[in-house]
Design brief:
The chain is of the alpha/beta class. The chain is built from 10 helices and 11 strands.
């Protein structure tokens, strides 16, 4: 399938008339008919009911709607690419671990989006994935929770989040602050399972430092999934205190007795990166922390 097939079908789907579509596309009608037939052959479905009037089939309506979305996204990408290449716009890629969305990051994103000359792209990824993406140039800045020793990457701790325990609703430990010893006696839901090292290793190291080991009942890759599994009674977990804005009837949060149990929000970027987009981002971060 080639890009022209999508564009031809988009115009035909809008006009539902081969003659008018061919005129808009500045091609003859027979080649247009052949291109649409090639598209149907490749997809293995009929997209058009070729009667009078011409109609889209159920599959045709689905393909038409999604082709419009894809072509609109492609047009935006091409437009931004031209503007970036001509110096009219700056691209900034941000990688973020899901739990950092409960801290300073949402307000940062809101402020960055008001900058008309900035093309902003967001990608959810672990700290380890962020480091790889920074080195490859796929992102310019990352927000994660794991310290990485790499001369190519500069890291800065923005804040140390207190950790809190997440327990199923009605759990007896919700009555008062819990100790790590009490939590170690419970089955644990740990996240993310992959890739490693990750926030899960940070939690394991926290218990190890107190001479405790965890009984992992379930591994998962997502914060939201871990909290859902706690609500289902699979076990307990630890999350940054900022996550407490997430309210659910089937769970409860309780603070830890060990107030030194924290998880950092860490900003990462390439060493010696002086790009305008990153500089603007770092200036905003200074204002927010």
């Amino acid at each position: 399938m080639e890009l022209r097939h999508l564009r031809y079908f988009q115009v035909l789907g809008a006009t539902l008339n081969f003659t008018r579509a061919a005129e808009r596309l500045h091609i003859a009608q027979p080649p247009l008919s052949r291109q649409i037939q090639q598209l149907e052959d490749e997809l293995g479905v009929i997209l058009l009911e070729r009667g009078r009037p011409l109609r889209l089939t159920e599959a045709g309506r689905f393909f038409y709607e999604h082709a419009n979305v894809l072509l609109e996204q492609l047009n935006k990408v091409c437009d931004n690419t031209r503007r970036i290449g001509q110096g009219e716009k700056t691209w900034l890629g941000i990688g973020f671990a899901p739990s950092t969305l409960y801290g300073v990051l949402p307000e940062l994103i809101r402020r960055l989006r008001t900058h008309e000359a900035l093309a902003l792209e967001l990608a959810e990824m672990t700290t380890l994935q962020q480091v790889e993406a920074l080195k490859a140039g796929r992102i310019d800045v990352g927000f994660g929770r794991i310290r990485i020793d790499d001369p190519a990457i500069v890291q800065r701790v923005l804040v140390e989040d207190q950790l809190v325990a997440v327990l199923p609703a009605g759990h007896p430990l919700l009555a008062a602050p819990a100790t790590l010893t009490q939590l170690a006696a419970e089955p644990f839901v740990l996240y993310p399972g992959n890739p490693r090292p990750s926030y899960a290793d940070h939690v394991i190291a926290l218990f190890d430092a107190h001479g405790l080991s965890l009984k992992v009942a379930q591994w998962t890759n997502e914060l939201q999934t871990a909290i859902g599994l706690v609500g289902a009674g699979m076990g307990v977990t630890l999350v940054p205190a900022s996550v407490q804005v997430l309210h659910r009837a089937d769970i409860g949060y309780t603070p830890l007795v060990e107030t030194t149990a924290t998880s950092p929000i860490i900003l990462s970027h390439r060493t010696n990166d002086k790009s305008p987009g990153l500089s603007h981002c770092l200036q905003l971060v200074e204002q927010l922390i």
